[in-house]
């Protein structure tokens, strides 16, 4: 089973892939509408916002937490 390199989500069905393209290593949540992968900054903001909302914490704290989470994933390990 593949795991999204950009957010860590397990990709279990064709519907999890961007544009149903199974050759991709990232999921549809990490892709733009044209199927290209989102940037670190885009994912960072997205994850931070979700984290802040879900856990009712400060956005600045959520942003730090999101950074730590994302940095562990293969897509962002080396570049950042
Ligand atoms: Zn993803």
Describe this structure in words.
This protein has about 80 residues and is mainly alpha-helical. It has one domain. Helices cover about 40% and strands about 5% of the residues. It is built from three helices and two strands. The chain has helices at about 40-55, 60-70, 75; strands at about 1-5, 10. The protein has a two-stranded antiparallel ribbon with strand order 1-2. A hairpin with a 6-residue loop joins β1 (about 1-5) and β2. It starts with a strand and ends with a helix. The mean pLDDT is about 95. Bound molecules: zinc ion. The site of zinc ion (ZN) has 8 residues, from loops.
Keywords summarizing the entry:
3 helices, 80 residues, Zn_ribbon_dom_put, mainly alpha, AraC family transcriptional regulator, binds zinc ion, two-stranded antiparallel sheet
Give the total of beta strands. 2
- Radius of gyration, in Å, reads 13 Å
State the helical fraction. 40-55%
Reported for the largest beta sheet, the result is: 2 strands, antiparallel
Give the overall form: elongated
How much of the sequence lies in strands comes to 5-15%
User: Can you count the helices?
Assistant: 3
Strand order of the largest sheet: 1-2
Hetero groups bound?
A: zinc ion
The parts where pLDDT drops under 50 for at least 5 residues are: none
SSE succession: EEHHH
* Average of the residue pLDDT scores: 95
Q: Structural class given helices, strands, pairing?
A: mainly alpha
Terminal residue distance: 26 Å
- Return the domain count: 1
Domain Putative zinc ribbon: 3-77
Pfam families: Zn_ribbon_2
Protein name: AraC family transcriptional regulator
């Amino acid at each position: 089973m593949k795991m999204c390199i950009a957010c860590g989500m397990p990709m279990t069905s064709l519907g999890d892939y961007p544009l149903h393209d199974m050759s991709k290593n990232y999921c549809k949540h990490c892709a733009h509408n044209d199927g290209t992968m989102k940037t670190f900054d885009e994912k960072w903001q997205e994850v931070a916002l979700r984290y802040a909302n879900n856990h009712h914490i400060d956005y600045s704290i959520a942003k730090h937490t999101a950074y730590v989470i994302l940095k562990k994933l293969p897509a962002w390990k080396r570049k950042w």
